[in-house]
Amino acid sequence: MTQVFNFSAGPAVLPKAVLQQAAAEMLDWHGSGMSVMEMSHRGPEFIAIYEQAETDLRELLAVPVNYRILFMQGGGLGQNAIVPLNLLGRAAQPATIDFVHTGSWSGKSVKEAKRYANVNVAASAEANGFTAVPPQETWRLTPGAAYLHVCTNETIDGVEFDFAPTVQGDVPLVADMSSHILSRSVDVAKYGVIFAGAQKNIGPAGLTLAIVRDDLLDSALPICPGVFNWRAVADADSMLNTPPTYAIYIAGLVFAHLKRLGGVAAIERTNIEKARLLYTALDADDFYRNRVAPEARSRMNVPFYLRDESLNDLFLAGAKARGLLQLKGHKSVGGMRASIYNAMPIEGVQALVDYLNEFAGR
Length: 362
Ligand SMILES: *Cc1c(COP(=O)(O)O)cnc(C)c1O
Known about the structure:
Bound molecules: pyridoxal-5'-phosphate
Order of helices and strands: EHHEHEHEEEEEEEHHHEEHEEH
Strand order of the largest sheet: 2-10-9-8-5-3-4
Number of helices: 9
Radius of gyration: 21 Å
Distance between the termini: 29 Å
CATH architecture of the largest domain: 3-Layer(aba) Sandwich
Largest sheet: 7 strands, mixed
Low-confidence stretches: none
CATH class of the largest domain: Alpha Beta
């Protein structure tokens, strides 16, 4: 098999060791004679897989005991509806949800939330082309808001929060961490709800994590669909209906792998080093351009443009020929994007940097 480095934004690269273990266990999991895909989600084998995954994730993120970890479906976009449907019952009607608009994904969250409540965009980085996180002093928050929603890593715009926002009173803070969960240390206690689709930094598409503080499990609107009701999902240990069993199994292998590497603090150090390497190369040559303010540059998703955009196709073809895959930017913003998630080895970033230098030289 040829060695490639896959810079896809998602579904994205997984640790090779995890894929090898999954391949070895594909037909016969631990002598059970069954593939994990063939097991009942209520049988002892799968329950063991699920419980280990939950325990390892709780340890990796230091999730406090008063939070539930829910393994759900519906993706990050699903949570854009599931969050309001589960939280709006706690606010006087008509309720207002506060948002900080930092890019494409928080923009989609705003759009969906408008179906359920009044929306206040407390701050927006739209005017500057989503190249920074608006300073918290400038946010115009609503007293008594149902909650405040932020996207702490904007996957398309390459903008990442380097701080945990503070909220007023008991307004819960909700964070979409789909594309940087487990890449850096997070103080979970600062958040009411954290959600993340799995396909960026955790495992296969089809699994969505929601980490919900206990006191927020019981505020659903009556119209909230039963399978998306956090209290019901929590009471059923995420097995209200059939969960995405194989995706949970792979996620569990990824969690165990991260623990072997030394946990989130260790992977964060590597991620800082990878990002430094890539941004330094992009800044060094005015052939390339990343417009994001230095303190808001994402460690996970690095969008960049060639100064001469007529060379885009040539750049991508040359990259592909060297096994540097899926570098094309999101269609909404164009240019290039290198996603360098946890599972991207530093050798992959170095190979990209070497190519950047060589292409600019030519
Ligand atoms: C990918 C992504 C989503 C959408 O996830 P789906 O699983 O496709 O619904 C939402 N938010 C962020 C930040 C993402 O990166």
